[in-house]
Amino acid sequence: MPTHRIGERVSIEPQKSCRSCEYCKSGRYNLCPDIEFFAAPPVHGAFAEYAAIESDYAYTVPDHVSDEAAALMEPLSVAIATCRKAAVTPGSTVLIAGAGPIGILVAQVARIFGATEITVSDPAAHRREFVLKAGATQVLDPQSDNPSQRGALFDVFVDASGAPPAISTGLQAVKPGGKAILVGMGSEKVELPVSLIQNREIELTGIFRYTNTWPTAIELVASGKVDLDSMVTHRFSLEEVEAALLTGSEDPYSIKSVVIPPKKST
Ligand SMILES: NC(=O)c1ccc[n+]([C@@H]2O[C@H](COP(=O)([O-])OP(=O)(O)OC[C@H]3O[C@@H](n4cnc5c(N)ncnc54)[C@H](O)[C@@H]3O)[C@@H](O)[C@H]2O)c1
Hints:
The protein is of the alpha/beta class.
């Protein structure tokens, strides 16, 4: 590692690829068969005072970006990868299922990429309220509203819920030639409306993490275009990791929890 980097405040891209397979060499290192990813077995995440990462996966963070925002470059990267793959451009209309952290950030990034209509569905009222302030142009409750019956169909559908009914209704709402991106990881299998996908020539694909997103993520946050700080609803110490992990299921008002290791003097 270049010694001048010692002591730098960084945001880490939590993966290590082999750098020599066809996917690494073509820049799609997220698909590397030998990838090691923090939090994916057998790697036990990074709830520790120290974690080792190759230096080019550690990105310098400007002083005015908070530690918490630096940590949340990771879900922001999922959103950037999603909007790139969906080819969101000025004037795009986007439907997002799920207003959790991923859906919220997809809405923010879609707006920055130029989307003019960003509709987000979520059964949780407080999450609909949050995403409406964070980038959505309209929200709907999937229990009472069907996006395909609310006027024009959408250029892009992003599932950020993992809920099979959301995928099914979302696909119905994609216009001919549009794109559907499955980000949510809920069920192994879902039923697909094959004729609809064929008749409308819908491009259906998935997202597996990200590649080459950190510089963009840091720039979007440093320039004030994306707000990550307001997503942090709960803070925990290293000793409280279990409680931090349970917050999402136990507190319906949580958005993102962060675990803060003890401060070290440099
Ligand atoms: N593909 C990837 O690389 C990748 C990366 C990160 C996260 N994910 C997945 O993305 C999904 C979203 O992550 P998150 O952190 O925002 O999760 P989350 O659980 O906080 O948010 C999911 C949201 O979906 C909502 N939801 C449930 N049923 C719905 C329905 N029928 N219609 C619309 N919304 C519905 C929930 O109320 C919730 O707000 C998860 O499944 C996660 O595993 C995938």
